[in-house]
Amino acid sequence: MYLLGLIYILQSHLLVVQSCPAQCACTFGNSGAAALRSVQCSDPRISAIPTNVPADTVKLRLEKTLISRVPRAAFYNLSDLRFLWLTYNSITAIHPSSFVNLKALRELRLDGNLLTSFPWEGLRDMPRLQTLGLHNNRLSSLPAHAALFLPNITYLDLSSNRLTILPVELLDLWFPLTGQQGGSVQRRILGLHDNPWLCDCQISMVMSLSMSLGSPIILMDQLLLCRWSPGQSGVLLTQTELSRCVRPSVQPAATRVVSPLGSNVILRCDATGYPTPTLTWVKTSAYNDCCKQDILKNSDQLPRNLESFMQQSPQVGVRWSIIILNGLSYEDAGEYRCQARNMAGISEAPIKLRVVGVSRLFRLPKKKSQKTPPKPPSKYRKPNQTPTNTPLVQDNQILQKNPAPSINKTQTILLPKGFPKDK
Length: 423
Hints:
Elements: H1 2-19, E1 25-31, E2 34-41, E3 57-62, E4 69-70, E5 83-85, E6 93-94, E7 107-109, E8 131-133, E9 155-157, H2 168-174, E10 188-191, E11 197-198, H3 201-210, E12 217-219, E13 225-227, E14 235-236, E15 246-252, E16 256-260, E17 265-274, E18 278-285, H4 292-295, E19 304-306, E20 310-315, E21 318-325, E22 334-342, E23 345-356, H5 358-361, H6 393-401
Parallel strand pairs: 2-3, 3-5, 4-6, 5-7, 7-8, 8-9, 9-10, 10-12, 11-13, 16-23
Antiparallel strand pairs: 1-2, 13-14, 15-17, 17-21, 18-19, 18-22, 20-21, 22-23
């Protein structure tokens, strides 16, 4: 029995060795009750990513090889992969779909390659990714849309690249405004050193905010150098005086707008500041004097950020934005706020929209109401004519209390023209 068990163990190990890719080493590591497979390929003769890596691999290291590109769906069969190291190779290009099906991946390292760009949208295929290493590459710019795919990254190493400017969208992600932080603050570790940063407001604010108490950002190295212009020698960021930072200023096209029911309206605001501020629209209250009761039912959903708007920056330091409301209803009435923010601060301007019915829009202004006294009953009636307004009991009582003055018989009474005189 013992001999049979020994043979089974030897066969299983033989299968493991046979399933391991050539020029690679496969090992097992224990994590609790599970055995985790690790594959390491460091042969300098490897020029392409192996296709026969065991499907149960948890950690894959491809280091110091001649691999120059990562093709589409290169790791599709490795759904259990948690750690992927592609460090110190000669990688120059990565397909946007290279990381499809890596839903369990926690760590991706691409240090020491020749990347001039990175497919940030590919991070969508790695929803659990927390560590991203891009140290010692040739990245020269960070696109604004990269912030859309980095909310879960808590360790980002961009050091030793050729970066000069940080987009405002990344700063908004790393330093959220008060009130926009959902729950506890998520701390991040950033590597920004050894880049030819330009001395601007963005990099200065990152430096100052990272040194503040309770900052959500921890810099790996706080000795950042910046240059006033490309080609100049770098100076320590802490020794620079960045006076270009200007708090945003918002100017709406109109502060009060009145528009008829069912019409279309455009709300616009302009903002200035440095860095160029970003604009957002928020509806803060809902009110219309015609149907206040119905509108207050949905007021618990306010304030609400509005997503369907346009904005454009014609030049550095200037940005405008419009929001179009088609087919106005009474629910569109209320107060809208145009918010502008940059790393120097935040400001906003309110715009009040009133929606009125078409009939009310063209109605003449009412005069002061005056009570018209009721016409007294005619003193002269045709024969057989029944009075139309018979006084009520209350009216008779009032007449009895206040009797009409008697007429003197000698007093001359003027009769209407054409009235027959008594003979």
